[in-house]
User: What shape does this take?
Amino acid sequence: MMYIIDTANLDQIRKCVEFYPIAGVTTNPTIISRENTDFVKLIKDIRDIIGPDLMLHVQVTASKADDIVKEALLLKEAVGGNFYVKIPISQEGLKATSILHNMGMKVTETAIFTQQQALIAALAGADFVAPYVNRLDNIVSDGVQVVSEIVDMFKAHDIKTKVLAASFKTVEQIHKIAMSGCHSVTINPELFETLTYHPMTQYAIDDFNADWESVYGRKSIAQIFEGK
Assistant: This one.
């Protein structure tokens, strides 16, 4: 499963690229607006940080198919590299998805809430579909179950579109999504960091350090080899 971070904050992106095995960055108009800065410079800076090979997903704001296509081409030209245009699912969005797919553009269909939305988006040519897990939970649905059924449906029909689960509040949700066979998740950096933390891990590290220092003091292995 691929981990993609959901932020436009440059410092957070730099940290995640340095320390974690991320597959890319996703953004949306809300995330972009939080940075309150020049939009074009921001997405170019994100590309500079992550390089050309990691995925960058940027969402359009247009609602008509022709305008969506225009924005997609402008975004692709601006950032280059491994780029996916995000399009919220709608009639116009599906039309634009088909047009862009035929042009060779990679598309992430977002704001998915049902299994059939995901299937129709995939058939229209979307490379990723992004169902919202926690938002489904908040409307007394089961976000994990919806994602699981989308994954199974794509397998049953031999559909190559990948599922990019989004909208998480807990590590447990992410774990269950991973167990469902979902291809990828997009999560904010704060939640991503909690995936690697456990207090027992820190206790174990502290014990290792204490036992080492009881014999070798504060010398590191490198210092011992170097005779320091």
Summary: The chain is about 55% helix and 15% strand.
